[in-house]
Amino acid sequence: WQRLKDGLSRTSSKLGRGITDLFTKRKLDGATLEELEDLLIQADLGIDTAARITEALGKGRFGKDIAPDEVRAVLSAEIEKVLEPVAHPLVVDAAKAPFVVLVVGVNGSGKTTTIGKLAAKFRAEGKSVMLGAGDTFRAAAIEQLKIWGERTGSPVIAREQGSDAAGLVFDAMKAAQDAGTDVLILDTAGRLQNKTELMAELEKVLRVIRKIDASAPHSVLLVLDATTGQNALTQVEVFGRTAGVTGLVMTKLDGTARGGILVAVAAKFGLPVHFIGVGEGVDDLEPFAAKDFARAIVG
Ligand code: GDP
């Protein structure tokens, strides 16, 4: 809880301070509600959600004095309502071994780091993990994945830069099956500059995976960078269509005062949120819990 609270402190201090300033010695009326709505929109919660929360707060309290703490309590309860339906842990089905997790997202969103953190988590649970360096486009991505592999004791399947991603994924699937690995995590490219090419590559990767194991991938994780704000919404649309995203990880929530974007994404798409990233360290990946998150961001 402390790590989560610290991680979300940029968002919570902005929202929390805003609420205190707004409601100290002021009545709840049209003007304060409108200012609150602006505050929520600035935190990237989205226009619809901001309007709904503001309306809920106004009900039965209009024209009365209200303490900032009561506002915070109503706010966090309303946010929790939006988040509760999307809070799902990533459950690894041992019967499916290798349980295949395909990780997608734009470059810089935190894919490789998240893969490293996930590998560490699974290893700590006693599972064997293999990593596939499917971002064959960037030498740095391959190198970084190898470092995470060493750090977590997970073999890394890699080819030289520029080789075919689907071919690499084929190798990794076979290697994980042969080794009897519990979890195979596959990295992918994320160069959104050439969307058509990237999506074609992802489709090809998916075909190869399914050819080897018709039930795979068992999870398609989209990694979203919270600091990109509203762009996250577009990324869910773009990747959701092609890659058949089954769940989300939102990273860098520690690096933004606009952590409400997670609420906007949840409200708009209803996709499961499995984890949130609140720092660069290996332990800075938290299972997503609706109530804790809602409490943590309101300050
Ligand atoms: P990729 O290009 O999608 O593979 O992204 P990387 O994993 O290389 O991450 C890009 C940068 O974001 C790196 O400097 C990471 O350390 C950093 N990063 C990843 N996740 C988080 C997070 O949750 N919080 C913070 N503050 N930085 C993160």
How would you characterize this protein structure?
The chain is of the alpha/beta class. The protein contains 12 helices and 8 strands. 51% of the residues lie in helices and 12% in strands. The protein has an 8-stranded mixed β-sheet, with helices on both faces. Strand 2, helix 7 (139-152) and strand 3 (156-157) form a beta-alpha-beta unit. It starts with a helix and ends with a helix. The site of guanosine-5'-diphosphate has 19 residues, from helix 6. Guanosine-5'-diphosphate is lined by residues 105, 107-113, 141, 190, 251-252, 254-255, 277-280, 284.
Task: Summarize the SSE layout with pairings.
Blueprint: H1 2-7, H2 9-23, H3 30-42, H4 47-58, H5 68-83, E1 99-104, H6 111-124, E2 129-132, H7 139-152, E3 156-157, H8 165-179, E4 183-186, H9 195-212, E5 219-225, H10 231-243, E6 247-251, H11 261-269, E7 273-277, E8 285-287, H12 290-297
Parallel strand pairs: 1-4, 1-5, 2-3, 2-4, 5-6, 6-7
Antiparallel strand pairs: 7-8
Helix pairs in contact: 2-3, 2-5, 3-4, 4-5, 5-12, 6-7, 8-9
Bound molecules: guanosine-5'-diphosphate.
